[in-house]
Amino acid sequence: MRQYTPDLTPPWKRNKTVPEIPAEFDLVVEEVATGFCGAVVRVEKTAQGPTVTLEDRFGKHRAFPMEPRGFLLEGKVVTLVRPSAGGPARPTRTASGSVAVPGARARVARAGRIYVEGKHDAQLIERVWGDDLRIEGVAVEFLEGVDDLPAIVAEFDPGPDARLGVLVDHLVPGTKEYRIARSVTSEHALVVGHPYIDIWEAVKPSSLGIEAWPRIPHGQDWKTGVCRALGWRVANTGEAWQHILSRVHSYKDLEPELLGRVEELIDFVTTPEA
């Protein structure tokens, strides 16, 4: 357990107070000093003060002191406090891990948008972040590839009140996608991506009951090769995708390289400019 270090910052230099959030069961937070991210599984009272135990996506547990400004919740600094005795033991959460808002109505759609490369990408984002996007009023639209991305962004004409976020597949240095993404220069557009050849790979193999995604030789159609290697019907990649999608129940079924990028886009589109 980390030793508590007092905050020696002069009072006039300290940041403003941050929200105090009850450490309810299953709340997903990140400890600021270590970056350890997980869901709350236990809150305990110790001689050194209250501690919270987090469980990460691999099932590993770590206990942390509940220090002021000690955690991040959806990217924002918070102070965790002990939940009230009469509070809910298991708060209802959305598939993305956000606290659900019972009875919340969908917000009128913003002018801003999130573009993704294809229908499968859009369906996966809807499955995990759909509730959050409806509350925020963010629409997701899909492109057919990114070859014409600079022209598409120019036609959208993003601005301070209409930001555009774009999620790109296989965004790694040296690729065609990387060069195209770098050619988008609007300050009101954000292009991010994940390293996977296709959005299929962003689903954890363990969620599908396989050890790993097959490696397909360069030059072969990737989806067809995957279906062949896994013994799925090669002629129907759409059926294979429906099988994959049916195994996604929450953010826990997705790789962090995708989770972080989608959250980044949602924040970019919904956060007002200063």
Automatic annotation (TrEMBL):
Domain of life: Bacteria
Pfam families in the record: DUF3097_C, DUF3097_N
InterPro entries cross-referenced by the UniProt entry: DUF3097_C, DUF3097_N
Domain DUF3097 stretches: 20-83, 113-270
Protein name: DUF3097 domain-containing protein
UniProt source species: Streptomyces kunmingensis
Lineage: Bacteria, Bacillati, Actinomycetota, Actinomycetes, Kitasatosporales
